[in-house]
Structure prediction request, 90 residues.
Amino acid sequence: MVSKLQKSKIEKQRRNIFKTSEPTRRYYKFLKINAFSLGFMPVHTLPKDRHKNYCLVSGSAHSIYRRFRLSRHQIKKYFALITGLKLSSW
Prediction:
């Protein structure tokens, strides 16, 4: 079992790696779009850019709101403290 502190460290490392490889990834994507149409480059050369969003409070990986980086449970818990949210029902 991974603790919340370890998850946050891992998440910071992943985001840092993603940030540093973003220009290279965009370059390869540009090459792929332009060169693949001419037939110069195989499809599998584009590096993958997967990263998972985790809740900052609970460390959960499911139902994360990107704007707040919190899970729906934490948003419900801290609803009064978060500005810009309206309670809605239908």
Notes: The first helix runs from residue 4 to 38.
